[in-house]
Write a structure and sequence with these properties.
The complex is a heterodimer of chains A (226) and B (752). With 226 residues, chain A is of the alpha/beta class. Chain A is built from five helices and eleven strands, in the order E-H-E-E-H-E-H-E-E-E-E-H-E-E-E-H. Chain A starts with a strand and ends with a helix. The relative contact order of chain A is 0.18. Classes of the chains: A alpha/beta (226), B alpha+beta (752).
Chain lengths: 226, 752
């Protein structure tokens, strides 16, 4: 018996198949979810993948946040179901107010694709337990609107509560405040980050590192234990 | 006041003396007369619109087709070719039941007028060509040429083009895995924006652009039709630019990558359910092209009701609807009982789909508007029987003087210090410098199958997770070589792309090309064009790699000044297991560096002659295609048998450029020695073709040498991977840090 992890496809999702592959490589069962469908098909966790849902028109994630599937994802997440938002998925999570803050355009105004060094700041979430706190990892980053912003009070609160999950190291690729690359909610079941762990799961492919695989093994262990 | 009567076929027959604006639409007088002769009457306005765009240089290849025939006539026998020239893109068998389709096209003129949209829609167009074959697109590549790197207009054009390629391609979820960026003042005012795409399918999924089966429905789906891009093919791509004319910006199309992404997904879903009889994308010449090509390639005729075309602008005339190049549209032919399901899939993806006509028993293409018949033509006369020109061509009188101006006579560095300075100057020159500022704006990782991407010698994509089957693609073209000798220059472009694919461990299979030249009305340009095609066709035959399709872009010139003749060649290869791929980067200290091939004093058209002396003259390097084939075989065998850990082809910039790139990518230096029989300068800067540098683990030294010896490939030990400097013993030493600063700092300093 393994865990079933849903991956939502919105119109304009791009890394949905990649997220499914990462889930499979970790040993869990990926389940395709459709944005128009409120039914989560009894999955144990959900990944909101990267891409340009609705072309990022209006604002990245702003339209997807209102899709039928998100109604269920929002209510389930509030009752504790693990949800991971990658890149565009992170943007959707902030638009849905499951995570605080917002994403602006990169400060240099260009799309950027690079192998990014990160520090795992919180290894206590549903998606990070296979990392050590303080561990330094490389995960590819690729986005146009990746500059994480929030008001000072929110940032202080995130820091105080240990809710900054990942921080950019050596180079801040987009101007994110306090080098924040990813955050978690209070309960630790909802995590969002701009880098793409699903693109660092096979030694031959992409950057050739597998530093992203622990995201998917973390959640698998948690779900199987539960 | 009376309404202007609709210009129907009937009306045209009754009013033979009405003057039509054929010249404004880009037709020549004799071409117009030919249309009248074909129809037996004057054309209607709508018919004139169709003929004018379809008979444009861009769509009809009227100046080039007498030469392009050689690609078919000289095509080598190849078991790999499943679909050849003439379809939207060629299709190649890569084994295990997979087929790969690929093609390179140009979007040069629009990208100069409006860099962002011009480049973006170039990506959109080539991607639709690939899906029209039934394939899922898996990667894109972008060979680019700009004016001088420090020219102010380059700072306008390049960032716009790069942002457009990224903005569109990234949003489609297609990894950008290769291409080139070249600067040369000859491209000032005429940048070359070529775009290539690869798609993968199973053999049984190949689709063709033809409308067959009377009663089958013609469905237009995708974006609504607007007034953008009207005359893009006939006006932009088929004339030279002239400052005196009004802005051509309205002739550039505007792209919506989100719409295209939906179009890809819904098309692939329709293919999967086998709902499609024939399919054509709407690119240049829009509906005129799609309807006439579908009808003329099929067995019957076609009837279309133009009133049913969904419009973005309700005031468009039928002529404009037929000519519009609005993006993100496709046309499918579907059996009547499958139409509902097809429309359902479109609805699922929020894609507008409308039945606009049907296949008929006859052999006419008939188009109706407001109840009147406004087009009644034999579709073949529109799509395939356009004019053919035997344009005069002649070797330009300056060619001899250019070739006599031997680069070998240029002053060479005399001291170690000069040699060292020239190495730094070379690796930091805009053409030889790292392009990561540009390529980092492209997503090369999406789809999770990217094995190699720029700056590797070829891009490589895994196409089967289980077996590790993969394909590789490289694009190359050196306009400087081609200017010196177009025949040899085109062969060198092929040789380099072929070598680049083999260097990564893949077997070269087939070729696509994008032939960028000046005005065909200039006999010197036509000679360059004819020579380049002859050279390329001859070389393809010898290497056994057929041309599967491609594109011609003419009129790349401003006033009298044409660009360098620039045939860009893409070679597609296959690798059985991507785990065996060979990267450029040095992997381990202590590995031995070998130079494969012969190094001669060849500096004509070289990067050294450009960077150090701003010189272009002499002859390009000699081509030896049998040597290229042998080198490729050795590189592929060595990769498969684990005898080499890194490899880099030698091309512009010569050996030192290759070694510096491998060192910087691997973060490991090299100690080099000048082998017997060569001098330091020639070793470093010669651009002799048919060469590569490989790093061999010491355990494989004997086996590797034996293999090269047995097969007759010259192999010369030139050093070892070592330390954090690049050193030429007895001459100079450069630290990786200073090389990195020189190599990586140039482009951001010029453009960021």
């Amino acid at each position: 018996m393994t865990a079933r992890i849903g991956v939502v496809t919105f119109p304009g999702s791009l890394d949905d198949r990649d997220a499914q592959r990462a889930i499979r490589l970790a040993g869990a069962e990926p389940v395709a979810l459709w944005h128009k469908d409120k039914d989560l098909k009894q999955v144990d966790a959900v990944v909101l993948p990267g891409g340009f849902s609705y072309g990022d028109y209006l604002r990245a994630g702003a339209i997807s946040r209102f899709s039928p599937v998100m109604e269920t994802v929002i209510s389930e997440a509030k009752s504790g179901m693990p949800v991971l938002g990658i890149c565009n998925g992170f943007q959707i999570l902030t638009e849905a107010h499951l995570l605080p803050g917002a994403m602006l355009g990169n400060d240099h105004l260009h799309f950027i694709c690079r192998d990014q060094k990160l520090r795992v700041e919180n290894a206590g979430t549903s998606w990070t337990s296979d990392y050590e706190s303080g561990q330094e990892i490389h995960i590819p980053l690729k986005n146009m609107d990746g500059r994480y912003v929030a008001d000072e009070r929110t940032l202080d609160m995130l820091e105080a509560e240990g809710r900054v999950a990942f921080r950019y190291l050596d180079f801040n690729p987009n101007g994110s405040l306090r080098d924040i690359a990813g955050i978690t909610n209070e309960a630790g079941n909802v995590v969002g980050l701009m880098p793409h762990p699903e693109h660092a799961v096979e030694p031959l492919i992409g950057t050739g590192r597998t530093d992203g695989l622990p995201f998917f093994t973390s959640i698998l262990k948690k779900l199987v234990k539960a | 006041m009376s309404r202007t009567p609709l210009d129907t076929v009937e009306h045209a027959a009754e009013t033979p003396d009405v003057e039509l604006p054929w010249a404004e639409l880009g037709l020549k007088k004799d071409e117009y007369e030919r249309i009248v002769e074909i129809l037996g009457r004057r054309p209607t306005g709508a018919e004139l619109a169709m003929y004018s765009v379809m008979w444009s240089e861009h769509c009809s290849y009227k100046s080039s087709k007498v030469h392009l025939r050689q690609f078919g006539e000289k095509a080598p026998q190849s078991d790999a070719l499943l679909v050849g020239i003439g379809e939207n893109a060629g299709v190649v068998d890569v084994g295990q039941g997979y087929a790969v389709t690929f093609k390179v096209e140009s979007h040069n003129h629009p990208s100069y007028v409006e860099p962002y949209q011009g480049a973006a829609t170039g990506v959109g167009g080539i991607v639709r060509d690939i899906i029209a074959m039934g394939a899922r697109p898996v990667a894109v590549v972008d060979p680019l040429r700009f004016g001088a790197a420090d020219h102010p207009d380059t700072k306008r054009v390049l960032p716009g083009v790069v942002a457009g390629i990224g903005g569109y391609g990234n949003c489609l979820g297609l990894p950008n895995i290769g291409g080139e960026v070249v600067f040369d003042s000859c491209y000032q005012g005429n940048p070359l924006v070529n775009a290539g795409c690869i798609g993968v399918m199973r053999h049984e999924d190949i689709h063709l652009a033809k409308a067959s089966g009377a009663g089958n429905k013609v469905i237009l789906y995708g974006a609504r039709t607007g007034g953008d891009g009207i005359g893009g093919a006939s006006i932009l791509a088929s004339e030279t630019f002239d400052d005196a004319k009004p802005s051509k910006r309205p002739a550039v199309q505007v792209g919506d990558p989100f719409q295209e992404k939906l179009l890809i997904e819904c098309t692939l879903e329709a293919f999967q359910e086998k709902l499609v009889v024939g399919i054509q994308d709407l690119g240049a010449a829009g509906l005129s092209c799609a309807t006439s090509e579908l009808a003329s390639n099929g067995s019957g005729g076609m009837r279309v009701t133009l009133d049913d075309v969904p419009l973005r602008d309700s005031t468009l005339s039928p002529e404009e609807i037929l000519m519009s190049e609005s993006q993100e549209r496709m046309c499918a032919v579907v059996e009547p009982d499958k139409v509902d399901r097809f429309l359902e899939i479109c609805a699922k993806w929020d894609v507008i789909a409308t039945v606009i006509g049907e296949v008929t028993d006859g052999d006419r293409l008939e188009i109706y508007w407001h109840g009147g018949k406004i087009v009644d033509v034999d579709p073949r006369t529109v799509a395939h029987e356009g004019p053919t020109y035997e344009r005069p061509y002649a070797r330009p009188e300056w060619q001899d003087a250019l070739q006599a101006d031997d680069a070998g006579k240029l002053p060479r560095p005399e001291t170690s210090e000069e040699l060292r300075d020239q190495v730094l100057k070379l690796v930091s020159s805009p053409n030889q410098a790292s392009k990561s500022w540009i390529t980092s704006q492209y997503d090369h990782l999406v789809q999770g199958n990217t094995v190699l991407a720029e700056p590797e010698d070829s891009g490589m994509i895994r196409i089967d997770d289980e077996t590790g089957l993969g394909v590789a693609i490289a694009t190359d073209g050196n306009g400087r070589y081609a200017k010196l000798d177009p025949y040899t220059g085109a062969q060198l472009a092929l040789a380099e792309a072929y070598r680049n694919v083999a260097t990564t461990g893949a077997k070269p299979l087939a070729v696509s090309d994008c032939l960028n030249f000046g005005s065909p009305e200039d006999p010197a340009v036509m000679w360059q064009f004819a020579e380049a095609i002859r050279g390329l066709a001859d070389a393809c035959r010898q290497l056994g790699t057929p041309v599967t399709g491609g594109n011609v872009s003419l009129y790349n010139q401003t006033g009298e000044a044409a660009i360098h003749p620039t045939p860009v060649v893409a070679v597609l290869g296959v690798i059985d297991d991507v785990a065996r791929r060979t990267p450029v980067a040095f992997q381990e200290e202590g590995q031995l560096l070998y130079l494969l091939g012969d190094t001669r004093e060849e500096f004509g058209g070289s990067a050294w002659s450009q960077v150090v002396h701003d010189h272009l003259g002499g002859l390009p390097p000699v081509v030896d295609l049998e040597r290229e084939r042998l080198l490729a075989e050795i590189l592929i065998s060595a990769s498969r048998d684990g005898m080499i850990d890194s490899a880099h082809d030698l091309s512009d910039g010569g050996l030192i450029q290759a070694v510096v790139e491998s060192a910087l990518l691997g973060g490991k230096g090299a100690r080099l020695v000048v082998p017997d029989g060569l001098d330091a300068f020639t070793l470093l800067f010669s651009e002799s073709a048919g060469r590569a540098v490989v790093a061999v683990p010491r355990s494989e030294e004997v086996r590797f040498n034996d293999m090269c010896g047995a097969r007759g490939l010259p192999v010369t030990r030139i050093g070892v991977v070592d330390g954090d400097t690049v050193e030429l013993q007895g001459e100079f030493e450069l630290t990786l840090a200073e090389l990195r600063e020189a190599h990586e700092g140039t482009i951001p300093a010029l453009l960021a």
